[in-house]
Design a protein that fits this description.
The chain contains 7 helices and 8 strands. The protein has about 210 residues and is an alpha/beta fold. The strands form 2 sheets. Strands 4-5-6-1-7-8 form a 6-stranded mixed sheet, with helices on both faces. Strand 5, helix 6 and strand 6 form a beta-alpha-beta unit. The protein is globular and about 50 Å long. The two termini are about 30 Å apart.
């Protein structure tokens, strides 16, 4: 079974690219390939100047650490850690300098300093997603992959989350020049990006 076919995609530093498409069209599969989480049966995938196929699992994990950020529809926060600890964890794992300060700065940028000591179960959906964004941007990644980041949020909260993703992408303090690859089913959110692509029958079409 062919899920993706005849894809030729290049994403530049600092560019925001939206990928739209119906459920099951291959959007999340494409994201997994681009991030080096899945293997392509043919073709090549390059991430941050490295050919994914040349790397083993440890090499891929090392490449992603600090260079790649992820934001998911269901937040993927660790329930036993506070908001601050969730943001701090990837910084500590990569040995980032001034990890504590950077975690605090990231939470301040997303407006959650007063909630830093709260656990995910004590936060609203929008607040949890803001923690996830702070966690993704705190290591100052070169590229951020966001898979339906507003899928579990109401429209108003979702628009605020997109504002945050785009603002932090341009912010010199967090993820300066970071590319944003956003998978979404919402064309209004996609309009906010520099480029819009639609996944249809395993192929990408450029939208005007």
């Amino acid at each position: 079974m062919t899920i993706l076919a005849a894809l030729d995609l290049e994403i530049n530093a600092g560019e925001a690219v939206a990928i739209l498409g119906a459920s099951g069209s291959g959007k999340s599969t494409l994201l997994g390939l681009l991030a080096g989480l899945d293997d392509a049966s043919s073709g090549e995938v390059w991430l941050c100047g490295r050919r994914i196929a040349d790397l083993d699992e440890d090499g891929r994990a090392e490449l992603r650490a600090g260079r790649v950020g992820f934001v998911f529809q269901n937040f993927q926060l660790l329930q036993t850690l506070t908001a601050r600890e969730n943001v701090l964890l990837p910084l500590e794992l990569t040995g980032a300098p001034d990890a504590a300060r950077r975690a605090d700065d990231a939470l301040e940028r997303v407006g959650l300093t007063p909630r830093a000591g709260h656990y995910p179960r004590q936060l609203s959906g929008g607040e949890q997603q803001r923690v996830a964004i702070a966690r993704a941007y705190a290591p100052r990644p070169a590229v951020l992959f966001a898979d339906e980041p507003t899928g579990n949020l109401d429209q108003t909260t979702g628009e605020h989350i997109i504002d945050l993703l785009l603002d932090l992408r341009r912010d010199a303090g967090l993820g300066s020049g970071a590319a944003l690859v956003l998978v979404t089913h919402d064309p209004q959110l996609a309009e906010r990006c520099d480029r819009r692509l639609r996944m249809h029958d395993g192929r990408l079409e450029t939208l005007a």
